[in-house]
Design a protein that fits this description.
- This protein is α+β, with helices and mostly antiparallel strands and about 350 residues long.
- Helices cover about 40% and strands about 20% of the residues.
- The protein has a four-stranded antiparallel β-sheet. A three-stranded antiparallel β-sheet has the order 9-10-11.
């Protein structure tokens, strides 16, 4: 066998080979752990990397399967961003391209913009915002924020200062429970904002309450972002687990140790009633000493059948044959390796 080529640090499309994994069996294919530009990871055969068969963790391919680029909300955001910066016929060109705002070369292609968005907190409902209003559209100057916050940040929205903080008129109306039309009429009459926004002294907000409300809003927005991140991590865990189960099953590996952790392939059985024979199952259960059960749900049935199998030398009792089905589900158990 020839010398194995070291792929560490080499780029293959969106993937970067990070480390070679230990052999998992005789004549097993050489596997590499790779990092993807989207932030995901993938376990890939070395030959699939070098021959160009696998170039990403599957995220971009999955996105393309769901819908074409032109139907993606992110694609519309990207297109509109380029239009207002480069097309003089765009209604917003004077606020962007007309002021010298441009889109960086890195985002000339949608795929690069897509991966940046996925890595930086994008989710439906958020909009792209430039941190420096005079800066260009580029990774270091952009973030994803709520539409309300973006509207608040625009130079067209008038701000009012109250208790040492800036508010839009809409924000003040929500805080004080006042109709906007009423407040606007008072302002037109020359009534100061601190009086126009109040109802006969009914509301009086101090600085601490305003600061707490800002903090609460900030925490809720942060939680929303983290919830989306957790959801993505759980989906990634499911994907990696499925891939590990496939490799371990193919290579007939039941467990292996790595960096003080043991990874084991576990098969669990889940008994369930045959849908068209539930009445027969219930009668059989009562006839065999389970008449004290008022009903049988999935949890009760699973526990009862497992107990019966255990007491019958690991074999399903004959009187249950054909009345239930037992499905198998594979999973990966992760535990610290025992030290001897």
């Amino acid at each position: 066998m020839g010398k194995v080529k070291d792929l560490t640090g080499m780029h293959f499309g969106r993937l970067t080979a990070v480390e070679k994994l230990p052999p998992q069996g005789k004549n097993a294919a050489l596997m590499w752990r790779c990092n993807c530009e989207c932030g995901g990871t993938a376990i890939v055969r070395g030959t699939d990397l070098t021959n160009g068969h696998t170039l990403s963790c599957g995220c971009y391919r999955q996105m393309q399967r769901v819908m074409p680029n032109s139907e993606l909300r992110l694609h519309r955001i990207w297109t509109n961003m380029k239009q207002r910066c480069s097309n003089p016929k765009s209604k917003d060109y004077r606020y962007y391209g007309g002021r010298g705002i441009s889109v960086c070369d890195e985002w000339a292609e949608f795929e690069a913009f897509f991966y940046w968005a996925m890595q930086n907190g994008y989710k439906d409902g958020l909009t792209i915002e430039r941190k420096d209003n005079d800066g260009n559209y580029c990774p270091s100057n952009c973030e994803w924020i709520t539409a309300v916050r973006q509207h608040r940040n625009t130079g067209k929205t008038k701000k009012y200062t109250l208790y040492g903080k800036e508010f839009t008129l809409a924000e003040l109306c929500r805080i004080y429970g006042q109709p906007r039309s009423t407040v606007e009429d008072r302002l037109k009459k020359g009534i100061p904002i601190d009086q126009a926004i109040k109802q006969s002294g009914r509301y009086k907000l101090n600085n601490q309450l305003l600061e707490l409300s800002d903090r609460l809003k900030e925490l809720r927005e942060r939680k929303s972002v983290l919830d989306a991140e957790v959801k993505g991590i759980n989906e990634e865990i499911d994907g990696v687990t499925t891939e590990m189960i496939g490799i371990m099953t193919t290579e007939e590996v039941t467990s292996f140790k790595r960096d003080g952790t043991t990874f084991s392939l576990v098969t669990q059985e889940y008994p369930s009633a045959e849908p068209d024979r539930k009445p027969e199952l219930w009668e059989a259960m009562k006839a065999n000493g389970f008449e004290d059960l008022f009903t049988i749900n999935s949890q009760t049935l699973t526990a009862t059948v497992k107990e019966l199998i255990a007491s019958n030398d690991g074999v399903l009792p004959e009187w249950l044959d054909g009345l239930i089905k037992i499905a198998e589900k594979n999973s990966i158990r992760v535990a610290k390796s025992k030290k001897y």
